[in-house]
Design goal:
Elements: E1 9-10, H1 25-41, H2 48-51, H3 55-62, E2 73-76, E3 84-89, H4 97-110, E4 115-120, E5 124-125, H5 126-132, E6 138-143, E7 159-162, H6 165-175, E8 184-186, H7 190-195, E9 202-208, E10 213-222, E11 233-234, E12 248-251
Helix pairs in contact: 1-3, 4-5
Length: 252
C-alpha cells in the first residue's frame, strides 16, 4: 500500500541519472533546445527564436543554476488546436509519488492538456511510475541526458517521416497489403519516442544507399516486445541492408 515502506527508485535503463554537479545551465540548455526541436518536429507551434537561443542568452534568462519551474514549455499543435502539450523539467532529486501528484495538481489546475512530457534529472520510484499511469492523457518520460543531443541530426541516422492517415491508406491500397504485413518499429525505439509515435502509426525511413541512391522503407510502430511481436521487428538504429517489397530506390 502507498505510504508504507520505502519507495524503490527505478533506473532509466540506457541512461544514468545526472548528479547535482552535472545538472548545470549547459545541460538544461541542450535538453530544452532538443525538446523544443522535438515538439516542432511533432507539429507543435514552437518559435525558432526560442530554439536558436544561444547558451549565453539562455544563461542571461535563467542563470547558471536554473529554476526548473521556469524551464517549462507549453505548446499547441499547428494543425489541431485541441492538442496541447506541456513539458515539465523535474529537479535533481529522486522523483517520488508526491512529486507526481504535485505536478498533476499544478498542470491540470491551469491547463487543458492532451499530453505531458516529464524530463527527469534522476531516477523515479515504482510508485511514482504507477501514479503516472493514472493520468487521463499520454505522459512521456525522458531522462535529461537523453536529450542533450538531438538523435535525428546524427549523420548516421536515417531520415524519418511520419505518414498521416490518408498516406497510410494510400500506401496499403497501392501495394494491396494488410497493415500487419508492414515491417515493424518498436514503440520504445529512440526515434519512435522522439516523434511520440503510437501503435499503428506508419513512418517512411530514408537511407543513403551506394553512390547517390536513396532507399526508402515503410515501418509501422508497434508496442513493446512482451506484447508478442512478429519476427520482422527492426530498430531505426540499425542500418537495413536489404530491400523488401515496400522499398523504393531513387537515383538523383
Amino acid at each position: 500500500m502507498e505510504g508504507k515502506g520505502k519507495e524503490l527508485a527505478v533506473g532509466s535503463g540506457l541512461s544514468k541519472s545526472l548528479d547535482d554537479t552535472r545538472v548545470d545551465s549547459h545541460s538544461y540548455y541542450l535538453a530544452r533546445r532538443t525538446t523544443m526541436e522535438m515538439l516542432r518536429d511533432r507539429g507543435y507551434d514552437v518559435l525558432n527564436e526560442d530554439i536558436n537561443l544561444t547558451l549565453q542568452e539562455f544563461r542571461a534568462l535563467y542563470g547558471e543554476r536554473p529554476n526548473v519551474d521556469r524551464l517549462r514549455i507549453s505548446a499547441q499543435h499547428c494543425s489541431d488546436s485541441s492538442k496541447k502539450i506541456v513539458v515539465v523539467f523535474c529537479g535533481s532529486g529522486i522523483i517520488k509519488v508526491n512529486a507526481i501528484r504535485e505536478i498533476a495538481a499544478d498542470v491540470l489546475g491551469r491547463e487543458s492538456l492532451t499530453g505531458l512530457i516529464l524530463v527527469l534529472s534522476s531516477d523515479i520510484t515504482s510508485q511514482a511510475l504507477k501514479a503516472v499511469e493514472l493520468f487521463s492523457f499520454k505522459v512521456e518520460l525522458f531522462q535529461l541526458n537523453e536529450l542533450l543531443v538531438n538523435i535525428t541530426k546524427h549523420v548516421l541516422r536515417p531520415k524519418h517521416r511520419v505518414l498521416n492517415d490518408q498516406e497510410k491508406e494510400s500506401l496499403l491500397k497501392k501495394f494491396s497489403i494488410e497493415e500487419q504485413q508492414l515491417p515493424k518499429l518498436l514503440k520504445k525505439d529512440p526515434t519512435a519516442r522522439y516523434y511520440g509515435l503510437e501503435k499503428g502509426q506508419v513512418v517512411e525511413v530514408t537511407y543513403k544507399g551506394e553512390g547517390t541512391a536513396r532507399i526508402r522503407e515503410i515501418l509501422e510502430c508497434v508496442g513493446m516486445a512482451e506484447e508478442g511481436l512478429p519476427l520482422n521487428v527492426v530498430s531505426s538504429a540499425q542500418v537495413l541492408a536489404k530491400c523488401g517489397e515496400f522499398v523504393e530506390h531513387k537515383r538523383h
